[in-house]
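Q: Structure for this?
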Amino acid sequence: MQQTMQQISDQQLIKSGSFINGNWLKADKQFAVTNPATGAVLMQVADAGEAEAEQAVTAAAKAFTDWAGRPASERGQLLTKWHDLLVQHQDDLARLMTLEQGKPIAEASGEIAYGASYLQWFAAEAVRLYGDTIPAPSADSRIIVQRQPVGVVTAITPWNFPNAMIARKAAAALAAGCTFVVKPAAETPLSALALAELASRAGIPAGVFNVVAGTDAEQIGKVLTQHSRVAKFSFTGSTKVGKTLLAQCADGVKRATMELGGNAPFIVFADADIDAAVDGLIASKFRNAGQTCICANRIFLHKDIARPFTEKLLAAVKQLKVADGLTKDSQIGPLINKQALQKVDKLVQSAIADGATLLQGGKVAECGELFYLPTVLTDVTAQMAIAQQEIFGPVAALQTFSDEHEVIKRANDTDAGLAAYFYSRDVGRVFRLSSALHYGMVGINSGAISNAAAPFGGVKQSGYGREGSKYGLDDYTDIKYLCLGGL
Ligand code: ADP
């Protein structure tokens, strides 16, 4: 184990294998988890595969009847305990996350609080899983509707939010009475395994929460989408992989929730508060070095404010501190791996070749080979690859527009429909845009939209289903209609 790992004060949070039916997997075959800031191997983790995924689903199926049969208040109390343990171990969990994922420690700490907030939210929602009575068409009958847990829920999650993407799915699933199996990204298994350790300490019974950590995503994915005991599958990741997994779900008619890629427009109108818009853009664009699915991707500036906005943005971007996430005040950490960095750089270089102007950055930073300098490009057009693909890096690609109608059309001209943002102080425009933007989430004069009380999810090829909020339990429950006759 690398020395940096010794700095985790509770060493029992560091696990080296999957958590299945309350047991920790040991295996001869292992895979390395590396620190993207330094390239150093942090530790070896047992490489689980198809067989372990099957064991986990079987364990979850076995645990289901007992878990679903417990009073909702009891499930809520266990989720609350799990939440409290995350908060109690926030520093260790954040450090572990920064080590394997790279994000600045302040962001990692924020993510632990954010992930924990879903446990708290759904602990409270568990006891509010209300049903309905419906007026029946005849006097001697009654119609009752109750909501039941769907059964075993499986999930595959990405590396960009190693804790919160799991916590927000598992919290809703467990609150509803479902049992859960997750395959975290192979880049970031340690945060997922630490979550499992804390679930166990909280008293969540064996088999209710399982983590299958392994490198054979395809085989594990087949089990999680096709096993006969799986009732529902929830995915957060790329649109391409999501489509494959959705097709796999079709055969068994599994319920599915898909939180896929975005291509968020960020529109600044001439009537906007420019300083607030710059702050909002920095928050939305550069968080996690631009590696979030709701990052501003296409930035549209009204031509009358494009110049002052760009100047202020440039000044703010120059202030961003690029450094190892464990360095105090780091704001931009490394990208997750070499391929990610090459993809970002290729988008930037091809935009420049196609006529975009580089104002800032555009190359690898000095502090390490996976660090990319915060970058600003102007004169970007809709035809450029950088405007059509998810950049997933710290690159602000600026376009200009002349009128509202035109920018709405351009903003909606994409297959993605996750998040959109706009800045305006004109109340009529606020309502017009709110309706016209074809997205699951719209940030209005705000660049930070995610929280447990709000429904997170997309439309179009960004997927379906909502996570968090009062709607968040819907995807984990079946509606059962009871018809009482002869009364
Ligand atoms: P990203 O670009 O964020 O890495 P991916 O969609 O490639 O997005 O990965 C998200 C999650 O999907 C990860 O846990 C990854 O291991 C998993 N994954 C990738 N390919 C497959 C696949 N063919 N089947 C199942 N899971 C997959």
